Request: fold
Amino acid sequence: MKKLFIVIFIMTCIFLWSSEYKIHLSWDEFEGECNGFMSGSIGKEHAFVSGGGPEKVLDGKLISVGEGFSTEAQQVFELNADDGYFTFWIKDKFADDDMNCDPTLIARSKPMISIFKGKNLIDLIKVPEGAGLACKVFTLDAFSGEVDREIRYYPKSRIIVGKVVNAVTGEPLADAAISIVDYMNDSKYETTGETGIFVFDVEIGQYTLNISREGFIGTSFIARMGADETPREVICALSPEIKEFRIVLTWGSRPRDLDAHLSGPNPDGGDFHIWYRNKILIGGKDFLDKDDTDKYGPETITIYKPAIGEYYYSVYDYSNKKKKRSKHLSRSNALVQVYGKNKLLAKFEVPENLKGNCWHVFKIDENHEIIPIDTIDFVKSERDIQ
Reply:
């Protein structure tokens, strides 16, 4: 019996040790110089390491072995965690020192990333051709072992890049005026072209973005450049001027599909529950103006014919609908903006580090007051959302 206990103990130790992740980065040194970065969060703690030197963060759970300190690859990262989310980037090693402006360097050096859990290879990523001095490669869910590839090139590292779109149609908005203000109250200005895209070079810190366009309701929000100095993406959906309630949902590049849900009183009698699978006409109008299934949004609902009673608004993570322990919704950077009377009435940011597939955002009471709910839980079916 004692021997059996010892065997079980040893096997348990081996199993626990096998939960360690290793990330190997290699490239063709004759073509360029790459540097890996891995940023991550466990609970409310955020940190990053660079592959250039040995370093430990997050209580030693995220480790850079350091370039030249391993024979397994040019740069090696270790992750001793069974929870949290971690994003891997590749940068041109000299880009931030203005020593190299060649946007083809990363692609020419043919980076290859091997991801191990224990001794098992769980993914092998060969970075394809592209142009940019920074490249986002993947995000790892340490709890599930899921590797979410998202290979995207960016022109630089320390930038805030955004896109302005029409909240009702989803089309890019030209001639939108954007200002970005730093902590010293210094400002930069830009006007969007036909693509609706804008880019600002920034330093580490917090910035306020103000966006406006004639005929639309202006808005503002906070963007941050972190110490990891990786690009920040923002999506801004401007609502045309409107007196009724209009609810606009935007989010980041993951999850791919979030769905807006609105339930409330039907002016013709009874109640309604609107979402992409249940589009109904109320007073001859479809309240769901824009449904988006391919990340970022916007997903827009307008209450064109208000009735007496309470309305409830929720956001459902369709991409991870069966995962009870998923934090993907909580990590989506989802933003809900409520407009009416030709102004922004309320703004809600998704709560962080919570598990579940449904964000119950707010209700509108019989006095047309917006009452925050702001909770996340798991629902078995979107039909059950109030």
